Amino acid sequence: MGFVEAIENVTGMLMDGTVHMMHPGYMGLFNPSAVFPGILADQIASSLNPQLAVWSHAPTAVEIERHTILAIGGLCGWETDKIAGHFTSGGAEANFTGVLIALTRACSGFSDEGALAFSGQPRLYVSVESHLAWLQIAHRTGIGRNAVRLVPTDGTGRMDADALADAIQTDRRAGDVPVFVGATAGTTNAGMVDPLEDCGRIARAEGLWYHVDAAWGGAGLLSKQAAAHLKGIEEADSITLDAHKWFAVPMGAGIFLCRDSQRLGETFRVSANYMPATIEGAVDPYTHSVQWSRRFIGLKMFLSLACMGWEGYRAHVANALELASMLRWLLEEREWRIVNDSPLTVVCFVDARGTADPVQVADDVVADGRTWISSVKFEGQIVLRACITSHFTREEHLRALVDALDQAREAKG
Question: How far is C-alpha 320 from the geometric centre of its chain's CA atoms?
Answer without folding.
Answer: 17
